Amino acid sequence: MLGTTVILAFRAINRHKLRSFLTTLGIIIGVAAVVTMVTLGNGATAAVREQISSLGANVLQLRPGQGFGRGGGGPRPPDFKPADLTAIENQLTGVRAVAPVVQSSGTAIYEGNNWSTTVYGTTSAYSEVQQWKVQDGRLFLPDEEEAGKSVCIIGNTVRTNLFQGAEPVGKRMRIKGVSCQVVGVLATRGQGGFGDQDDVVVMPIKFVQRRFTGDRDISQIMVAVDDAYDSATVQSSLEELMRERRKIKAGDQDNFNVFDTKQISDTLTGTTTILTQIVGAVAAISLLVGGIGIMNIMLVSVTERTREIGIRLAIGAVAREVLMQFLVEAIVLSCLGGLIGLFLALIASVAIAPLMQVPFLFDVKVNAIAFLFSAAIGVVFGYFPARRAAALNPIDALRHE
Amino acid sequence: MSVNPIISLRGVTKVYGEGPTAFQALKGVDLDIQQGDFVAVMGPSGSGKSTTMNILGCLDVPTGGTYLFKGHHVETLDRDQRALLRRRYLGFVFQGFNLLSRTTALENVELPLLYRGEDKKLRYDMGMAALDKVGLKDWWDHTPAELSGGQQQRVAIARAIVTQPDVLVADEPTGNLDSQRSIEIMELLTDLNRNSGITVLMVTHEPDMAAYARTIVHFRDGLVESIEEGVKA
């Protein structure tokens, strides 16, 4: 009996292609919307995670001042001293690596090409803290760091714009009017939420301090927390140490701040997850509307096909068979719509993901759920019209004009 | 009358509606129809002939009385049981042809076989045989819109006989056709009755058409008024 009704349902769908398509349209759009939204949302979440982890997993950023800004008026809070760095290295437990950072911006020149970029003065520990990898060449040698030699490691954006295809390692370029030798190129890190992470020139901190900033101050200290330790505990020890070293009285506000990248990671991941859920829910409503669309057209279809139903009943179809036919029609249509929707979502996601600069992640679960949901819609919204069709009296149905 | 009529109505009444607005369409009909008969049912509008045909075709049940069809007490059967009875023993032809639109002649004819659960090969063979019988074998892949009225009615007859039913119920089968087509349809029905042994029950208000029948039953005011022999029988 099921075989018969499936044949009949497919024939009816095939005979009325436009009607079938319109019936399905709501489901197609609904499924496509839900799956595209959730797929892109998952991609965005993954992208955020990726960016955060590119900042270095579990890194505490120590900066002068409160929060991101300088906070209020008054004198600029003092930068950190080399002794602070030594103290953190020696007195703090649970620390994997500590890297000082001074930042400066300036123009790099190579054979007539100019490029404005950011100069980071730091030590080799930075590569450990930030998990930066050198793609070509090498990191700084200990004696280069110690002496503050004029050597640099450049990011890929700088390489592309300044060297334009030439091999940079071993070449000499000028940065802020000073000649320096390129010893390495960083592996590409891509666009982060914090700007182009490849648009950098990294140099030994001592060189930057001597030639660019003019003092031995450190504007930022990055502390990589050992995985075995809780970053919150390390953070409070760090804060305690710095209050002591900066002679802040009990009750006074800190003139420095410690920022845990894990917090941003958790917050941003949470935010994008919630956003994905909200957008997914909105799209799910459109799927529901699509289901109501199916019911609507099926109901109209039952009225329009009353005479057809009458014929079927007269020649010996039992009520159950008519019910099954309409139900199977609704399910086939909604499943077909679901499949087309999934296909469109695939195309849309693949097309949109690069524009949004998020990875395309095909989630089998999301696709499966959306498909099953569309099938369920066929059952739920197809049942009512189907029951109505099956309940028709053959004599009245035949008389229907 | 022979001992075992295929159809036997005894004191059949039919009331539509309830209370003061109730309308008694049949007031106690007694009728026996023999296997292989060709019966024309005639009568003015409201005489009860359509109601009787609906009951005879197992599409409707009597309010009172008994209806014995091939030994089944139809008045005791439920909807689905009557549907199965129609599927097994009855074929229907309507005034308005009632073919499925956008559906080929063969698919229309196959429909009752589909409900019987026959396989594809058998459906095709029986469907083509039925179309051949009504002279439309070469038109099997045409949809109703591509066929003339007479051809459509012949497809409908093919659909009615494809299951090799015992009884063919025809409700004004020539009502929508011109006289030439009507004669062709009547000749086809007569042929099916004579050579395939199908009992034909036909409602008509045209005496010319009724003349093809062996038995003519006249209805008036919900009762059988008279039964006569057909002219051409």
What would your notes on this structure say?
- The complex is a heterodimer of chains A (401) and B (233).
- Chain A has 401 residues and is an alpha+beta fold.
- Chain A has two domains: 2-51 and 266-399, no CATH class; 78-254, no CATH class.
- Chain A contains 13 helices and twelve strands.
- In chain A, the strands form two sheets. Chain A has a six-stranded mixed β-barrel.
- In chain A, a hairpin with a 2-residue loop joins β8 and β9.
- Chain A is elongated and about 100 Å long.
- By secondary structure, chain B is an alpha/beta fold.
- Chain B has one domain (7-229): 3-Layer(aba) Sandwich (Rossmann fold), CATH 3.40.50.
- Chain B has seven helices and ten strands.
- Chain B has helices at 49-56, 79-89, 105-116, 120-133, 149-161, 179-195, 207-210, and strands at residues 7-16, 23-33, 38-42, 64-69, 72-73, 90-93, 167-171, 199-203, 215-220, 223-229.
- In chain B, β9 and β10 form a beta hairpin.
- In chain B, α5 (149-161) packs parallel to α6 (179-195).
- Chain B is globular.
- The two termini of chain B are 17 Å apart.
- Classes of the chains: A alpha+beta (401), B alpha/beta (233).
Largest sheet descriptor of chain B: 6 strands, mixed
Radius of gyration of chain B: 18 Å
Topology as H/E string of chain A?
HHEHEEHEHEHEEEEEHEHEHHHHH
Strand order of the largest sheet of chain A: 2-3-10-5-7-6
Helical proportion of chain A, percent range: 55-70%
Number of helix segments of chain A? 13
- Helices and strands of chain B, in order, run as EEEHEEHEHHHEHEHEE
CA(first)-CA(last) distance of chain B: 17 Å
Q: Structural class of the secondary structure composition of chain B?
A: alpha/beta
Number of discrete domains of chain B: 1
CATH-derived topology of chain B: Rossmann fold
Number of strands of chain A: 12
Strand content of chain A: 15-25%
Average pLDDT over all residues of chain B = 92
Assign the CATH superfamily of chain B.
P-loop containing nucleotide triphosphate hydrolases
